[in-house]
Amino acid sequence: MLCFSFCWLLALCGCTLANIQIPEEYLAAIRQDRADDQSAGEYNYDKQGDDWTGTCATGSKQSPINLNLDESKIVAIPRLCFYHYDQALQTPLVITNNGHTANMVIPPTRGGQRAGINGGLLPGDFEVQSVHFHWGSKNSKGSEHSIGNRRYDVEMHIVHKNVKYDTMGEATLHPDGLAVLGVMLRSTYILTFQNGLDKIFNQLPKIEQYSSNATITGTLTVGQLLGGIITDQFFTYNGSLTTPDCAEAVTWTVFSAVINYSGRQIAKLWKLKDSREKPLVNNYRKIQEINGRDVYFRAL
Ligand SMILES: [Zn+2]
């Protein structure tokens, strides 16, 4: 029966993945994630979000922003704590081309725990939900935040939900609902192996078509996605989702340390297609006004 629902989900009948057992709870979470994404309506990156409406147009605490050390408050902030970030996740994992990004809903660990974070300026405990990416193209860089007016090649977002809310939909209605970790990737000419990222990027050729999925097996922890960067230095501020409906529900933590990653792996992102069968490139929103918000920097 799992195969049936899996095939339905993946629109892959003839199901070569028939023997892969996906727990029903994980399938339900993937379907809910797709529904949440689609509830915002159709949108694209033709104008880097300038034509998005609602809170995206009227909000005053929008993301991304330029992060400037000179304009940040350098204050004593607790370090960020990661729990179950070193525990292997249930497998298989499913990665999806949802027309806006390559997205992976993150299931519980093999021990049944949810990886999560607290500390920093986070208003509570947050458990991980999903990871996705923003990128540029052959000729342009595509991080969403910039640091000192510098854009990086790729920005990874690890999305977490405040444990006090039951669903993502509910969490987006509250300013303390979500916590997103932003991690910059810098393209390198030399081959750079990244245990965690490689597991995702090696599957990208299988999800070039809109609405396609691929599975990841083997051992992956959420922590491996951080590529061993130092997590003690980061910018943190209150902002929004960077996709419609741009809900102002996010405590952002953007690390100043950058993951160096093979240009050959990053180039795989540029081959993804959106729902119009156009290349899914430059899927980043343009920089938003700070509007007097405090941006904090945690120094070592
Ligand atoms: Zn994002």
UniProtKB/TrEMBL annotation:
Residues 41-299 form the Alpha-carbonic anhydrase domain. SUPFAM superfamilies: Carbonic anhydrase. SMART domains: Carb_anhydrase (SM01057). CDD domains: alpha_CA. Residues 1-18 form the signal peptide. It comes from the Eukaryota. The keyword Metal-binding applies. This is Carbonic anhydrase. It comes from Drosophila rhopaloa.
